């Protein structure tokens, strides 16, 4: 892979990791338990519980993405970085810039 693209991809990894870490922190704050003594109505409480479960799902997805980003950043300097894990063809640099944690080319994804 072109060293210029490789450096861009490393920077993208770092940017994405920082953004995802911020999202994870925000989701963790939003998924704190809902205290029953809060003076909200029964319907509002049910709505808050439903929203909490949606945010918990977003938290799990963000944590999964963060793990993939960290793993990908560790693989950037390996000789097979940028090769599809399924067909072993080169993943276009544009795809890696958009989704740096991608392990598959568009056809195999």
Task: Outline the structure in words.
By secondary structure, the chain is an all-alpha fold. The chain has a domain at 3-78. It is 62% helix and 0% strand. It contains 3 helices and no strands. Helix 1 (3-30) runs antiparallel to helix 2 (42-75). The chain is elongated, with a radius of gyration of 19 Å. The mean pLDDT is 87.
Helix content: 55-70%
Mean residue pLDDT: 87
Described by the principal axes of the CA atoms, the overall outline is elongated
Taking the alpha carbons of the first and last residues, their distance comes to 20 Å
Work out the strand percent.
Answer: under 5%
Order of helices and strands: HHH
Low-pLDDT runs of 5+ residues are none
Q: Compute the gyration radius: what is it?
A: 19 Å
Class of secondary structure makeup: mainly alpha
Q: How many runs of DSSP E, i.e. beta strands?
A: 0
Number of helices: 3
Major sheet: none
Question: What secondary-structure arrangement, pairings included, does this model have?
Answer:
Elements lengths: L2 H28 L11 H34 L17 H6 L11
Helix pairs in contact: 1-2
